[in-house]
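User: My collaborator and I are trying to settle a disagreement about how two of our proteins should look. Neither of us wants to argue from intuition anymore, so we agreed to look at predicted structures for both before our next call. Could you fold the first one, then the second, and keep them clearly separated?

Assistant: That sounds like a sensible way to settle it. I'll keep them separate. The first protein:
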Amino acid sequence: MLNQERVCEMTKLAIFDQKKGREYKPMTEYFRRDYIARELLKSFITGTMAFAILVGAVILYDMEGLLEQINSIDIRQIVTRGILCYAACMAVYFLVTYIVYYMRYTKGRHEVKKYYLHLKKVNKIYREEEQI
């Protein structure tokens, strides 16, 4: 005979596995610090590429002005501004990345804990059925 409570719990487990399982799997594989560090490394790579594309687009947009002033350009000042701009952009990007992935990890761990509670409940029901 089917146990209604067990079927409900197993249905909840199956729904979690299908919908949220992949999304929350890293929360079970990594510690918080490792998970966030991995995402920050990805953000460093993508942020650097985005900044390079942005600088390239600005240079292409103002190519005529650059060619007219090519002899009077202060390279040291441009490089200094570029480095400061890059550092500021990356600092903001890292901060946003840290906050977003910290919140995702916290939410994911909470959801995984709820999943394990349902799993424990199913195991308890199985043990009770074996005793009967």
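The second protein, kept apart from the first:
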Amino acid sequence: MKLVIVSGLSGSGKSTALNVLEDLGYYSIDNLPLALLSSFADYMSGTAQKFYERVAVGIDARNRSEDLHYFPAILNGLQNGEIQTEVIFLDAAEDILIKRFSETRRKHPLTNDHVSLSEAIRQERVLLDPISARADLYIDTSTSNLHELRDLVTLRVVGKVGGGMSLLFESFGYKHGLPQDADFVFDLRSLPNPHWNAQLRQHTGKEIPVIEFLETHADVHAMFKDIRDYLERWLPRIAASNRSYLTVAVGCTGGYHRSVYMVERLVAHFSTAYQNTLVRHRELP
């Protein structure tokens, strides 16, 4: 049985992630008391019904703080058995969470007459630290809308084939913010910028005119070689440590040209060695 534990801060998109998994064939249950997780997992894995082969469970700050403290021990117990577990943790910047609560007018589970929304968010982050520290996949949803989050969960969790490490190459634009859930970040802003060529500005790094422009510059090839060589050296060691997910972010100023080109080139190279090699261009429609 595969058990996906979905956790994260209130307003970060936990319900959306659980709904995606449910739509894609997972038996999903939200707000399960953590103290019941081991018994629940044993029951589900013990049944012969294929309906329960893939299960998703939401665990969050609505649990007792004493129970959350024991999450690492509970997870270790599950991993010592026949159950394949993955922990997904969703997060977002405090100002984004405050804005989302303001727009939806929902009540944060930890607010009361003496605890403001900002204080509740900070308390929740501390309470959930035992879970976030054990996350296999950390997703920052600060810059993601509902549809983008659905696509990302589908791409990373459901699109994963077999038990190998899921390797995501993501392009982004620095002017739109650094991706907080990246494991490695490479900066391409020192490379020649197609944006300043009026004939190239409306094209992206996936299109021939931009590709041909970039490939006339020796620095572009040198940058690719340096990133490739670094990852070829360290990815096998990371995969050997039983990592389930890894995100490599490549950024340029706007996220349309240089970073897109480089990500496409890296994916073409590493997809031959890593079965679960994925691509995401954050700034492209």
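Some points you might bring to the call about the second protein. The two ends are 36 Å apart (CA to CA). The chain has eleven helices and nine strands.
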